[in-house]
Automatic annotation (TrEMBL):
Pfam families assigned: 3HCDH, 3HCDH_N, ECH_1
Domain 3-hydroxyacyl-CoA dehydrogenase C-terminal per the UniProt entry, residue ranges: 509-604
Reaction(s) this enzyme catalyzes, per UniProt: a (3S)-3-hydroxyacyl-CoA + NAD(+) = a 3-oxoacyl-CoA + NADH + H(+)
Protein's recorded name: 3-hydroxyacyl-CoA dehydrogenase NAD-binding domain-containing protein
Domain 3-hydroxyacyl-CoA dehydrogenase NAD binding: 327-505
Length: 735
């Protein structure tokens, strides 16, 4: 037995410490499941075994669930699945889920009491394993959590979780937990009734043994004659109501975009009417059905595999030694600069935060202090740690203190001359190897690099607001930026625990370039006379976090007006005005700046509460469509999604972005692009390039050239290529 360290103690308790071979985290590989089956067999047949304790031998957690890499990587195909079958991978995953249920059930019915000593993080299949144990003791360690987060990658719990959790805590609580993918901290898990005891980390095994020796019941709750589902099952009037309301609520919240949530609902509803063994089969059937959906395939690829790859710096040129950062200088202590100083100091790096005068620099530092106070008050950090982070930040107007910095991040006002000036001042203090990164959102990096004496060390490091929350950072290559500089910039972004994507130097780079058309399409619709409520409703129904007009309010209307006028200036005679842009400019002139001053497309009550549409919108464009039938709503949704996707395709054609994984991950982390699609490029691939081009041609005819497919898409459609097929798996090599 290689994946569990097994020891029979003097009381006849078989202590099994999980330790997956070759993995940093415990996961259920095929071999590990075989070992667990052997444990269940031994418990059943060996008279010397009085009870079983399952715990983890690894210091970083209990179990992260099924091994997705193995599950989808073909390890299960050997089980009689034809490798040439295009669905082989997914059938392998089905086989894995089936086996997981069989093994967990064998443990649950081995006839001896089984207790879980959960000494660390237990997620997905890890939580499902302990639900199949008769007793659960959880460590109170600071990093310990439990939960069933499968919906976040387009799946639902398929290792018995969808059947055991509702039987344990009731259908309503279980459905909420599983459909949100909620994680429970130790106290929450105890309060929810998911575990029996929470004890100090070094006491979990003892407490589990104590239960076996004193009470040690070897029969699962749901295998007892007198068992009743808490809160009533679906056949019980109260239970039936839970399902009716739950169904309506889940469909409303997810707009039907997530088949996993709908299938979860079916599995729980049908499963609760059956004995557990049949219920587990119902679960496996719905689980397999979910796996076969394009949404699950795309979400697993992007939100699991690509997120990991990009999050580890897949865009980093290979062969450049890793850079350690001892000091970073941040120029400009405004909204962005202060946030950048905060996240940098949070990762243990010394920061010199520079502004025009001491007061402005101090203001930036006090913003960091506010963020730290909030973290302390929420119990996320100790006071000592917070003070330590704050002490790493030196706020000053003195450019001389930049000396010794490995990196400068510039975040002064968006002005080319000003940026040139501070570049010169900073470079006078910097070593030849130091990197200079600009956080500009609109000025070309190659233009800014002209002010630098070392343009090969000059790069764009584009953060999103608010910096402490947004995970994405765009790294922008200038014409002369070297690979060594790119590698250093990526090392910095990884060090501060953000996700870097590498983009080339075109107007608005990648994220804003694709996002702006979403808001512009909302303006087109407004000018066509479509009611703002419809525009924002269909916007949310696409899976975007907010509709286009609400989103404009959030970004700030004055900023959008500024961007529009600068775009017009840059494009000169080629600029095509967006209908509605003059009206937005008028709103700004009248003091409607968006959410930040409580007045935009919507009025935001000062006391909080729901926003209400500003009545003036209908004076600007009288409403001609105040209701949309399902077909009309579908078409509006298409416009909002396809205008972004066609822009992303143009970015590939122009080489603005080169790796579909980075485009997908960037779209979800950067502007909340519909996660069900797996990202902006996965959306096109799942529609199919030929169908997408045909639709774009149709839409160009109806709405104009902004929908026109680029030549690249036509070529791909003619050859039947996908983006992942054509551009997949690029590794950037150092020159
Ligand atoms: P801001 O106005 O809040 O801050 C700019 C700061 O620069 C001010 O504190 C100002 O005093 C300081 N400054 C001006 N001249 C200086 C000098 N000579 N030396 C040092 N400091 C000086 O602006 P912001 O929103 O933080 O934006 C800063 C940069 O980040 C801009 O280039 C902007 O385009 C970019 N950006 C902004 C956002 C956003 O959402 N606001 C997002 C990404 C990038």
């Amino acid at each position: 037995m290689q994946n569990f360290k097994v020891e029979l103690d003097s009381d006849g308790i078989l202590v099994c410490a999980f330790d997956t071979v070759g993995k940093t985290m415990n996961t259920f590989t095929k071999a590990a499941l075989d070992d667990l089956m052997a444990i269940a067999e031994r418990a059943k047949t060996d008279g010397a075994v009085k009870g079983v304790v399952i715990t983890s031998a690894k210091s970083n957690g209990f179990c992260a669930g099924a091994d997705l890499e193995e599950m989808l990587g073909g390890a299960w195909e050997a089980e009689g699945i034809d490798k040439s079958d295009p669905e082989a991978e997914l059938k392998g995953a089905f086989a894995a889920a089936f086996e997981m249920n069989r093994v967990y059930r064998a443990l649950e019915t081995c006839g001896k009491p089984v207790a879980a000593a959960i000494n660390g993080l237990a997620l997905g299949g890890g939580t499902e394993l302990v639900l199949a144990c008769h007793y659960r003791v959880l460590s109170d360690g600071p990093k310990v959590q439990m939960g069933l987060p499968e919906v976040k990658i387009g799946l639902f719990p398929g290792g018995g979780g969808s059947q055991r959790l509702p039987r344990l805590i009731g259908a309503q609580a279980a459905l909420i937990a599983m459909s949100e993918g909620k994680n429970f901290k130790p106290k929450e898990a105890l309060a929810a009734g998911i575990v029996h005891e929470v004890v100090a980390d070094d006491q979990v095994v003892e407490a589990a043994k104590a239960w076996i020796k004193t009470k040690g019941d070897p029969v699962a709750l749901w295998d007892k004659k007198e068992f009743k589902i808490p809160g009533g099952g679906p056949y019980h009037p109260a239970g039936a109501q839970v399902f009716m309301m739950g169904n309506a609520l889940l469909r409303k919240q997810s707009y039907g975009n997530y088949p996993a949530v709908i299938n979860l609902m079916h599995a729980v509803y049908e499963g609760l009417q059956l004995p557990i063994d049949s219920a587990l089969k119902v679960e496996t059937r719905y689980f397999a059905k979910t796996l076969m959906t394009p949404q699950a395939k795309a979400m697993i690829r992007t939100l699991f595999f690509s997120m990991q790859a990009v999050g580890k710096g897949s865009g980093r040129p290979v062969g450049v030694p890793k850079t350690e950062f001892s000091q970073v200088a941040v120029l400009g202590a405004g909204m962005m600069g202060a946030g950048i100083a905060y996240v940098t100091a949070m990762s243990g790096i010394k920061v010199v935060l520079i502004d025009r005068d001491q007061a402005a620099a101090d203001k930036g530092k006090s913003h960091c202090e506010d963020l730290l106070k909030k973290a302390v008050s929420r119990g996320k950090m100790t006071q000592d740690k917070a003070q330590g982070v704050l002490d790493l930040i030196a706020a000053t107007p003195d450019y001389g203190l930049i000396k010794g910095s490995d990196l400068v991040v510039e975040a002064v006002f968006e002005n080319t001359e000003l940026k040139a000036g501070v570049t010169k001042l900073a470079e006078a203090e910097l070593a030849d190897t130091a990197v200079f990164g600009s956080n500009t959102s609109t000025i070309p990096i190659s233009l800014l690099a002209k002010a630098s004496v070392r343009p090969e060390n000059y790069i764009g490091i584009h953060f999103f607001s608010p910096v402490d929350k947004m995970m994405l950072v765009e790294i922008i290559m200038g014409e002369k930026t070297s690979d060594a500089t790119l590698a250093k910039a990526i090392d910095y972004v990884l060090k501060i625990k953000k996700t870097p994507i590498v983009v080339n130097d075109e107007r608005f780079f990648f994220a804003n370039r694709c996002f702006i058309p979403f808001t512009a399409e909302g303006l087109h619709m407004w000018a066509e006379g479509i009611a703002p409520a419809i525009i924002d409703n269909v916007g949310r129904a696409t899976g975007m976090p907010r509709g286009p007009l609400e989103m404009m309010d959030d970004v700030a209307l004055d900023l959008l007006v500024k961007i529009t006028s600068e775009t017009a200036k840059a494009e000169g005679a080629n600029y095509i005005p967006i209908p509605g842009e003059a009206e937005v400019a008028k709103m700004v002139a009248d003091g409607r700046l968006g959410r930040k001053n409580g007045k935009g497309f919507y009025d935001y009550p000062e006391a909080g509460g729901n926003k209400a549409l500003w009545a003036g919108t209908k004076d600007m464009f009288p409403v001609t469509m105040s209701e949309a039938d399902p077909a009309q709503a579908e078409e509006l949704k298409k416009r909002l999604l396809y205008i972004q996707a066609v822009t992303a395709a143009r970015c590939f054609e122009e080489g603005v972005i080169t790796d579909p994984r980075e485009a997908d991950v960037g779209s979800i982390l950067g502007w909340g692009f519909a996660p069900w699609s797996g990202g902006i490029i996965s959306l096109i691939d799942s529609i199919g390039t030929a169908t997408f081009v045909a639709e774009l041609d149709r839409m160009t005819g109806l709405y104009g050239d902004r929908f026109a497919p680029p030549q690249l898409l036509r070529d791909m459609a003619a050859k039947g290529e996908t983006f992942y097929g054509r551009f997949g798996k690029v590794d950037r090599k150092a020159a």
